């Protein structure tokens, strides 16, 4: 495949040049079919189109810097291939140092709150106890791990097909299989990397309808690659620090602003808090986020690279765009899908999604893949955009081994031991989806 283009690659009309709404220039699509104007406009739907005045100025500055960073990332990948993602030792040390500072600060706030409560009780200074108590509660709710919904634990005995696939992925990526593999009713596809304890792999059944077995293995390879080597410890340590800081700042704000129902006192209080007490923490978070961004992006590109090494670029591209289409369908069309399900007296929401896609002409699905493969660069995002991930993947055609041919649809990998298909599992997941609390 020498003429790699997202549109022609899936057999639909190549894109036409567009007029840039910001500067008026005519922008031809790049070799992959994405728009990228020299003024910073990143194609239709770009939020830059709507900004005004000062916010537009800031948005353009943000875009310029993010563009520059992305260009460097892609250049490095093109020049150095697999070694492009190795991190400079000075950078790693700085990251560890600042992450440690973040933990110290968070610990100090925690200790401060506890001290306020205890000292307040001893002095019978009740307002102090109350303020300390409120902040402690806000911090604790902020950092309390978010409860995931119900899920099915996939064991080696119960799900031999999935485990065989995971074994193959683990072998190709060179990593061990997480001890806990959870099938969830929704659209996550992630590896939960806890600071301590073992990793948890989440596989959302609603992400699978457009994937082949090879595509699913490609995504699994990406996730398992996140848990590989020593960088995972750095990734966890630095990532957890950013998460903690973010949750505390925004958890407190949400806790304060969330109670605001019509009354303006608490929201004035929130604004006040935001610009006084929380300001240093927000600044710290901002600086740390920018610092960690390089690690976070390099990590994501490296995981993509590992997936492409293991199962070829085509499987990776198909799976990445296939998951995007499935996620959108899950969130946008779930009502009509439920109605269909009831009409068909079917107990499987996932079979209904597949019927939905099966009834669509293939070029519509291709069009959706291309349309959803967008994303606008910003420093706010620690991950590379989808177009950049696709750009990196397309650049490997010819250089890395091609994808093996699919042998079955991805959902069949969920077939439990002793069954001939995944229907029973899908029915159980459907029940979890619609009755998340019961059982
Ligand atoms: Zn322009
Ligand atoms: Zn990832």
Structural overview:
About 2% of the residues have low confidence. Helices cover 59% and strands 5% of the residues. The protein is mainly α. The chain has 14 helices and 6 strands. The termini are far apart. Bound molecules: zinc ion (2 copies). The site of one zinc ion has 7 residues, from loops.
Summarize the structure.
With 439 residues, the protein is mainly alpha-helical.
Rg (C-alpha, Å) = 24 Å
Ligand catalogue: zinc ion
Question: Approximately how much beta-strand content do the residues carry?
Answer: under 5%
> Helix and strand succession?
HEEHHHEHEEEHHHHHHHHH
Mean pLDDT: 86
Class from helix and strand fractions: mainly alpha
The order of strands across the largest sheet is: 3-4-6-5
**Spatial shape:** globular
Number of helices: 14
The count of DSSP E runs of length 2 or more, i.e. the number of strands, is: 6
Poorly predicted regions:
259-265
Spell out the key features of this protein:
single chain; binds zinc ion; mainly alpha; 439 residues
Present the secondary structure layout.
Blueprint: H1 6-9, E1 18-19, E2 26-27, H2 53-80, H3 89-123, H4 126-143, E3 152-153, H5 160-173, E4 180-184, E5 189-192, E6 200-204, H6 213-226, H7 231-258, H8 265-275, H9 279-332, H10 334-343, H11 349-359, H12 362-372, H13 386-394, H14 423-434
One zinc ion binds at residues 222, 226, 300, 303.
């Amino acid at each position: 495949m020498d003429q790699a283009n997202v549109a022609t690659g899936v057999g639909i009309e190549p894109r036409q040049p567009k007029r840039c709404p910001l500067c008026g220039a005519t922008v031809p699509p790049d070799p992959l079919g994405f728009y990228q104007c020299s003024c910073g406009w990143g194609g239709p739907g770009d939020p830059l189109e709507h900004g005004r005045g000062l916010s537009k100025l800031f948005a353009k500055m943000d875009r310029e810097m993010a563009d520059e960073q992305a260009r460097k990332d892609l250049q490095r990948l093109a020049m150095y291939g697999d070694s492009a993602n190795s991190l400079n030792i000075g950078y790693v040390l700085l990251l560890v140092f600042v992450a440690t500072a973040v933990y110290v600060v968070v610990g100090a706030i925690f200790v401060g709150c506890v001290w306020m409560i205890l000292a307040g009780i001893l002095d019978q200074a009740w307002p102090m106890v109350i303020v300390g108590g409120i902040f402690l509660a806000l911090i604790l709710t902020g950092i309390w791990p978010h409860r995931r919904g119900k899920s099915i634990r996939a064991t080696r005995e119960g799900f031999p097909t999935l485990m065989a696939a995971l074994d193959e992925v683990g072998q190709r990526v060179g990593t061990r299989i997480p001890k806990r593999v959870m099938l969830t009713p929704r659209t996550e596809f992630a590896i939960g990397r806890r600071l301590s304890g073992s990793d948890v792999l989440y596989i959302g059944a609603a992400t699978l309808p457009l994937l082949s077995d090879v595509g699913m293995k490609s995504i699994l390879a990406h996730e398992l690659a996140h848990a590989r080597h020593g960088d995972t410890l750095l990734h966890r340590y630095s990532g957890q620090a950013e998460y903690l800081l973010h949750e505390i700042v925004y958890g407190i704000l949400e806790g304060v602003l969330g109670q605001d129902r019509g009354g303006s006192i608490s929201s004035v209080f929130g604004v006040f808090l935001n610009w006084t007490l929380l300001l240093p923490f927000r600044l710290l978070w901002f600086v740390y986020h920018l610092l960690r961004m390089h690690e976070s992006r390099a990590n994501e590109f490296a995981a993509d690279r590992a997936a492409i090494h293991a199962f070829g670029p085509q499987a990776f591209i198909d799976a990445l765009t296939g998951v995007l289409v499935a996620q959108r369908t899950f969130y946008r069309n779930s009502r009509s899908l439920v109605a269909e399900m009831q009409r068909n007296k079917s107990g499987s929401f996932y079979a209904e999604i597949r019927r939905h896609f099966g009834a669509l002409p293939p070029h519509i699905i291709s069009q959706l893949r291309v349309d959803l493969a967008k994303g606008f660069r910003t420093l706010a995002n620690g991950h590379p955009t989808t177009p950049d991930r696709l750009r990196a993947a397309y650049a490997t055609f010819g250089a890395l081994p091609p994808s093996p041919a699919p042998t079955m649809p991805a959902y069949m990998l969920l077939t439990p031991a002793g069954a001939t298909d995944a229907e029973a599992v899908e029915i159980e997941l459907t029940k979890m989806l619609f009755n998340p609390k019961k059982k």
